[in-house]
Amino acid sequence: MMVKTKKRKRKTPIIRLRNVAKHYHMGDETVKALDEINIDVYEGEFVAIVGPSGSGKSTAMNLVGALDFSTKGDIYLDNINIEKLEESDLAQIRGKRIGFIFQTFNLINTLTAVENVMLPMIFQGTEYEERLAKGKELLTKMGLEHRFTHLPQQLSGGERQRVAVARALANDPEVILADEPTGNLDTKRGEEIAKMLDQLNKEGKTIILITHDMYVAKHANKIYYLQDGKLVKSHRK
Amino acid sequence: MLKDFFTISLNNLKRRKLRSWLTMVGIFIGIAAVVGLITLGQGLQTAITGQLGSLDTDSLTVQNAGTGFGPPGSTVIEKLTDHDLKVIEKVKGVKSVTPVLLRMVQIRYNNEVSFELMRGAPEEPEFYEDFYESQSMEAIEGRLLKKGDVGRVLLGNNFAKKTKFGKAISVGKTINIQGGDFEVIGILKSSGSLLMNDAVITFHGELKDLLDIDDEIDIIGLKVENGKISEETAEKVEKALRKDRGLKEGEEDFSVQTPSQVLGAVTNILTAVNVVVVGIAMISLFVGGIGIANTMYTSVLERRKEIGTMKAIGARNSNVLMIFLIEAGLLGLIGGIIGALLGVGIAFGVAFGANSAFGSEIIQLSISFPLVISVVTFSFLIGILSGAIPSYQASKLKPVDALRG
């Protein structure tokens, strides 16, 4: 397997959050889930966004992942302000340029492991044969070559998350967005997933990890700390 | 991509087997009703037309008004008489007239009694040959009546079975009708017409004598000169009888019917029945459609997280819409196919039951493929229409909201 270890850093960050805020209105009260956040993520970086529960980590992930719109500020992917895009363009960005890994795996229960990995490729119009070959290749890479036709409920938690990682890689995205990927796993399986992210980063993927677990966050080379919706500090290894 | 969406949708239906089946029950009851009733209706129409064919449909008929389709002579109103026969005979354009008597008689044979409708056949060869031809009458045993036959009777095919009198009647046997003995001269071949299978036929004069009928006619059959039955001749006959009886228009105590009027009336009744039953079936389909909509709404609510995940991994709104629409359409389509098969099965079952009961192939059904294809397509469309709003809502869910479940 070709392993790209050289990290090419560009002058312009691949992801930029500029003065981003997300406010929710609950009755008369306005909750500031995120307030004036500025984050830069460069290509090939492994960035962790950490903070306690309610600090705004998931809100940040939703915004970076083009799953939601901010109340204020701009979010750039390369130099495109994704806040200005239509839903169909955002779907294209999510499908092609970002790979999601969720805490609860979010596999489709009616589909087998390989079909789950093939699903993002369906939405990109990839031919069946190509999808199947890629699906099998990715699952094999995750050590799941004996689990192609298993349904999610027939897999262990660690195996499900590995299927989810394979699915995130299906369309060969530049960015992997992992939201508490070890949250539902025991320490050993969690460490396996963290190492897998390490490996993907070494292969050239930009990783954004959302976690409250400092032990997992240590795998990242840059850490942003969030508290009560505000960025309190950042730390580079 | 569409094929993949079909697979995804089908998997979703399989995953919720019980709910999918229950939803489809609503659809296939409606479709089974539509297919079953229409198929039976068509068979029934053919059967009734066949029965009417056993009346003299190639001629005009004059009856007492109000007699309708019940046995003539069963109502107490002014009877048709030989005088009426003469009046009609004089109408311009009328070629010939034939008096017809149709009466219930008591028949005894093998110490058993049965009540049957007996008909008098025309006496003259040129008329009875016409009568035989118009009814496609053919003897499978013995022969048909011919001039000079006295005390003889021709029987329908059902009399050759044990079911009537516990013993089959064969040619040469004597049966007792209303106290008078008649020799069986022939047994008719089996017919699609119930009337013909149960026919008891003797000559008109003999029936008159047997029942001691003096001057009474149940039906006057008449043929027109150019051989073509027209409304115009019917009007002339009506006018002549009205004038003779001193009646005003609209006060007629008789009716002149052309075969097309009789057939038209029956067709109208059958069409009305069909419209009503199809209407009821449509209500059932409507309810089935609501069932699909309900299932799809529930499905969207349950699968919000799945929808969110699909959107996160690149599904466009149109992709999600398509997956849910196909799912709803499949509920309609599968429900429609099962319903159509069930409907055809029910129709054939009912026809088989009816034919067994009548001992004759009176209802002959055929599968109408255009009907089956159109109802299945219709059912598919109902599924799609019912699923349209829930599917649209699913497609419009914001990814972030959907992912929260």
Question: Can you offer a commentary on this structure?
Answer:
- The complex is a heterodimer of chains A (237) and B (405).
- Chain A has helices spanning 57-64, 87-96, 113-123, 128-141, 157-168, 187-202, 214-217, and strands spanning 15-26, 29-41, 46-50, 72-77, 80-81, 98-101, 175-179, 206-211, 222-227, 230-236.
- Chain A is of the alpha/beta class and 237 residues long.
- In chain A, the strands form two sheets. A six-stranded mixed β-sheet of chain A has the order 6-7-8-3-9-10, with helices on both faces. Chain A has a four-stranded antiparallel β-sheet with strand order 2-1-4-5, covered by helices on one side.
- In chain A, a hairpin with a 2-residue loop joins β1 and β2.
- In chain B, α11 runs antiparallel to α12.
- Chain B contains 13 helices and eleven strands.
- A six-stranded mixed β-barrel of chain B has the order 3-4-9-6-8-7. Chain B has a four-stranded antiparallel β-sheet with strand order 2-10-1-11.
- The model of chain B has no long low-confidence stretch (mean pLDDT 84).
- Chain B has two domains: 2-52 and 264-404, no CATH class; 60-257, no CATH class.
- The chains are: A alpha/beta (237), B alpha+beta (405).
- The A-B interface holds A 62, 65, 67-68, 87-88, 91-92, 94-96, 100, 102, 106, 108-111, 119-120, 122-125, 128, 167, 170-171 and B 1, 4-5, 8, 11-12, 14-15, 305-306, 308-319, 398-400, 403.
Radius of gyration of chain A from the CA trace?
Answer: 18 Å
Strand order of the largest sheet of chain B: 3-4-9-6-8-7
- For the terminal residues of chain A, how far apart are their CA atoms? 28 Å
CATH superfamily of chain A: P-loop containing nucleotide triphosphate hydrolases
Oligomer: heterodimer
Structural class of chain B: alpha+beta
Report the count of strand segments of chain B: 11
Rg of chain B computed from alpha carbons, rounded to a whole number of angstroms = 31 Å
Counting H and I runs of at least 4 residues, what is the number of helices of chain B?
13
Q: Order of strands across the widest beta sheet of chain A? A: 6-7-8-3-9-10
CATH topology of chain A: Rossmann fold
Q: Proportion of β residues of chain B?
A: 15-25%
Shape of chain B: elongated
Low-confidence parts of chain A: 1-10
For the termini of chain B, the CA-CA separation is 26 Å
Give the H and E element order of chain A.
EEEHEEHEHHHEHEHEE
How would you sum up the major sheet of chain B?
6 strands, mixed, barrel
**Main pleated sheet of chain A:** 6 strands, mixed
Low-confidence region ranges of chain B: none
